[in-house]
Amino acid sequence: MAEGYVQSSTNEGVATVEFFHPSGNALPSELLDQLAHTIRTLGQTPAVRVIVLRSGGERAFCGGASLTELASIDSMEAGKAFFSKFANVINAMRLCPRLIIGRVQGKAVGGGVGLRPATDYCLATQEAAVRLSELTVGIGPFVIEPAVRRKIGVSGVSHLTVNATQFESAMWCWQKGLYNDVYQTADQLDEHVTDLAQKLAAYDPEAMRQMKQVFWEGTDHWDTLLTERAALSGTLVLSEFSQRVLTALKNR
């Protein structure tokens, strides 16, 4: 894709999934579809033992939803369909029978924050700050909220949501449980991600599959829940407030 890509490669049982978009690694609909499809496919590939999820480039990890697409939503059906794509990615990661390691080199905003707690183990650099900016555009982080709350609790989610213009640091994320470890440089991060992935690839896949099911106990209702949340976001994005803000952002 001229406007971004999702690509994967597999080496000795470790599948690496990388997404990229020139607009701060934002995720338009097509990339979200590709990301969900790639994760589902790799989860059913016998040669794959573990998955590493990363983004391309050296700066932002994920800029969240495409503002251009958000501003173009003109019906509740279109809004629900768009936000459901984030739900599909989270559910694909949740249901994938392979453990997923998050490799996070930079900041994430909005929906991009939801990819991090949807991994099973997340490693980051000190540049990997987060911000839930949805309230500033008249919606809320409804679709990703269950995944984020599962890792950092209601207090953490409410803090990020209310402070919608404020980034919280990678160390804050580590203290809250969003990251399992934080490293000073991307080189150090890659060294530890590679080491962990290789170790996991040598373990029994059935034991890891069963362990992942234990990790995600209590989330069987997420197919329905996240679809309901997508419909809520799809309705709110049509409000006068949201349309005014999105138009201003698109035109600046």
The second-level CATH architecture is Alpha-Beta Complex
Distance between the termini: 26 Å
Q: What is the typical, i.e. mean, pLDDT?
A: 96
Rounded radius of gyration (Å) = 17 Å
How are the strands of the largest sheet arranged?
1-2-3-4-6-8
How much of the polypeptide forms β-strand, as a percent range? 15-25%
The helix/strand order is EEHEHHEEHEEHHEHHHH
Q: Main sheet, how many strands, which sense, barrel?
A: 6 strands, mixed
Overall 3D shape: globular
Number of domains: 1
User: Which structural class do you get from the secondary structure elements?
Assistant: alpha/beta
CATH superfamily: 2-enoyl-CoA Hydratase, Chain A, domain 1
Q: In the CATH scheme, what's the topology name?
A: 2-enoyl-CoA Hydratase, Chain A, domain 1
Q: Pick out the low-confidence regions.
A: none
Write down how many β-strands occur, each being a DSSP E stretch of 2 or more residues. 8
Written description of the protein model:
By secondary structure, the protein is α/β, with parallel strands linked by helices. The chain has a single domain, classed as 2-enoyl-CoA Hydratase, Chain A, domain 1 (Alpha-Beta Complex). Helices cover about 50% and strands about 15% of the residues. It is built from 10 helices and 8 strands. The protein has helices spanning about 30-45, 65-70, 75-95, 115-120, 145-160, 170-175, 185-200, 205-215, 220-235, 240-250; strands at about 5-10, 15-20, 50-55, 100-105, 110, 120-125, 130, 180-185. It has a 6-stranded mixed sheet with strand order 1-2-3-4-6-8, sandwiched between helices. A hairpin with a 2-residue loop joins strand 1 (about 5-10) and strand 2. Helix 1 (about 30-45) packs parallel to helix 3 and helix 3 (about 75-95) packs antiparallel against helix 9. The longest helix has 20 residues, at about 75-95. The protein is globular, with a radius of gyration of 17 Å.
